[in-house]
Amino acid sequence: MTTPVLQAKGLVKVFGRVVGLDSVDLTLHAGEVLAVIGDNGAGKSTLIKCLSGALVPDEGSILVDGAEVQFKRPQDARDAGIETVYQTLAVAPALDIASNLFLAREIRRKGPLGSILRMLDTGEMKRQAADHVKRLGISTLQNINQAVETLSGGQRQAVAVARAGAFGGKVVILDEPTAALGVRETGQVLKLVRDLRDQGLGVILISHNMPNVFEVADRIHIQRLGASAGVITPATHSMEDAVAIMTGARTLDSTAH
Questions:
Q1: Given phi > 0 = left and psi -120 to 50 = alpha, else beta, which region is 9?
Q2: GO molecular function: any one (predicted)?
Q3: Residues in contact with 57: Cβ distance below 8 Å, sequence separation at least 6, in sequence order
Q4: What is the SS3 string spanning 1-57?
Q5: Can you name the residues that pair with 204 across neighbouring β-strands?
Q6: Where are the domains of the chain?
């Protein structure tokens, strides 16, 4: 097997008397969609925050391409090629699509105009934004100059995912990307997830929606009470199996087919 693009070993995170993560392992390969599922309080959010630099684990290690890393803040994870799209989309509604794709990564104009006057190269950002959108095959974003506030929920999600796909050199983490979306828009976002995978990125998908998970995931990591309850695949286990393991009704061994 190839070296995992992202790996967590024995992650522990404690909040006072509450154990958020109890020695959790996770492995993600390039060109793979790994779903992370679990009931509320299972440790999904804590796990993702540790992998994205928003939280520092108390114990354990995180490896990117086999090399151990120390994430003290989200920017450290971004610098390592890990982009995260949270459920509360970090988009600027008043700005256009191109400006949102380059939010906090603006391209300045060459020469003194950029270095001294700090003028932005809006033309270059629009050109690159259009390329990113086209490369990801996002047909719902036709006009790169359109303000994000005029977009539908699914289109806004597409903007956030496109930004992650454009700058996430190795891994894209998606937190409930289809929550509050209709059937058609959910389908568009799931297509985006597949497109990211097909481009060789490792994708972590956190979702409560079992049909979505079983539609796009290559493997499914199940969290329960802060610990990992096991990893299954849609080929070897059913949705009923996944829910049973997630709720503790059954163990991974007892669901083996």
A1: beta
A2: ATP hydrolysis activity
A3: 11, 12, 13, 21, 50
A4: CCCCCEEEEEEEEEECCEEEEEEEEEEECCCEEEEEECCCCCCHHHHHHHHCCCCCC
A5: 34, 173
A6: 6-90+153-255
pLDDT one-digit tens code per residue, 128-164:
888 877 776 666 677 888 888 888 888 888 888 888 8
Percentage of the chain lying above the pLDDT 90 cut: 54
- The confidence score (pLDDT) of residue 137 equals 66
Q: How many CB atoms lie within 10 A of CB 208?
A: 14
Q: Considering only CA atoms, which of 195, 205, 91 is closest in space to residue 151?
A: 91
Decide if 220 contacts 231 (C-beta within 8 A): yes
pLDDT at 184 over 90: no
CATH topology of domain 6-90+153-255: Rossmann fold (3.40.50)
